[in-house]
Specification:
The chain has 228 residues and is mostly helical. It has 11 helices and no strands. Bound molecules: the ligand Cc1ncc(C[n+]2csc(CCO)c2C)c(N)n1.
Length: 228
C-alpha cells in the first residue's frame, strides 16, 4: 500500500529503508494476523513478549520527556507514556487473562533475546544521543503499526480471528496518534536540523537508527512465529 501520511520525516525515513520497511509491514506474522491463519499459540507468545516490550517502551517514551526541548514535545511523550501504561498494556492483560495467563505471569515473563535487543537498542539510542536519536529509533513502532492496521483492515471482516488486534491500530483514534506524533517529529526535526533536514550531517545517523529499529521489528515478528 502507499505510505500513510504521518509527516515528512516518516516519509523520508520509510523511503530510505524500503526493503526493510516492507519486510516489517508485510511479514508472514502480519499476513497471518490478516487472513486469520496465525496459530493462536504464536499470537499469545507474541503478546506475552509484547507486554514486557511495552514496559521498556514506556521507559523509552519517559526518556523522551527528559530529552524534550519544548513543552509540545514533552506533552506528546507524556501522553504516549500514559497511553502505554494505562491503556495499551491493559489490552494485553485482558486478552491474556481470557487465555488463563495472569498479569503477574506477564510481568515476570522471561524476555526473548530479540525483545532485549530491540528495547535496549532504543533506550541506548536515547541515552547516548539527543531527542532526535531517540525519536528515530521509536518511530518505526508507532508508524509501522499504523500502516499495518490500515493495510489489514482493507481485507478483514469483523468476525475474523484477529479483528480486535487489527481494529485497535486501524481505528481513527490510533491513526490520529500517528498523525500527532508525525507532526511533533517534523517540528522537532525542523527545530534542530532546519528546513532541509536530509541535507544535514546528522541525517545518515538518524536514518540508520530508524532502519535498525525497523530490522529489529522484523526480528520481533520472527520471534513470535518461533512460539508455534
Ligand atoms: C513489537 C512492537 N512494536 C510496536 C508496537 C506498537 N507500539 C509500541 S509503543 C507504541 C506507541 C504508543 O501507542 C505502539 C503503537 C508494539 N506493541 N509492539
Amino acid at each position: 500500500m502507499t505510505a500513510p501520511n504521518y509527516g515528512q520525516t516518516f516519509a523520508h525515513m520509510r523511503e530510505g529503508c524500503l526493503p526493510s520497511w516492507q519486510a516489517y509491514t508485510r511479514h508472514a506474522f502480519v499476513q497471518g494476523l490478516g487472513d486469520g491463519t496465525l496459530p493462536r499459540k504464536a499470537f499469545l507468545h507474541y503478546l506475552v513478549q509484547d507486554y514486557v516490550f511495552l514496559v521498556h517502551f514506556s521507559r523509552a517514551w519517559s526518556l523522551g520527556v527528559v530529552k524534550s526541548e519544548t513543552l509540545d514535545e514533552m506533552k506528546v511523550c507524556a501522553a504516549t507514556v500514559d497511553a502505554l501504561v494505562n491503556h495499551e498494556m491493559a489490552l494485553h492483560v485482558k486478552t491474556c487473562a481470557a487465555e488463563g495467563i495472569s498479569e503477574q505471569q506477564l510481568f515476570d515473563a522471561r524476555e526473548e533475546v530479540e525483545n532485549i535487543a530491540y528495547t535496549r537498542y532504543v533506550l541506548d539510542a536515547g541515552l547516548q544521543g539527543d531527542f532526535l536519536d531517540l525519536m528515530a529509533a521509536l518511530a518505526p513502532c508507532v508508524f509501522g503499526y499504523g500502516e499495518i492496521g490500515l493495510q489489514l483492515a482493507q481485507t478483514t471482516n469483523a468476525d475474523a480471528p484477529y479483528a480486535g488486534w487489527i481494529n485497535t491500530y486501524a481505528d481513527p483514534e490510533y491513526q490520529s496518534v500517528c498523525a500527532t506524533v508525525g507532526e511533533m517529529l517534523d517540528g522537532a526535526v525542523a527545530r534542530r536540523l532546519g528546513d532541509d533536514p536530509t541535507a544535514s550531517a546528522r541525517w545518515a545517523t538518524l536514518q540508520d537508527r530508524f532502519t535498525t529499529a525497523t530490522d529489529l521489528e522484523v526480528r520481533f515478528w520472527d520471534m513470535g512465529l518461533r512460539g508455534v
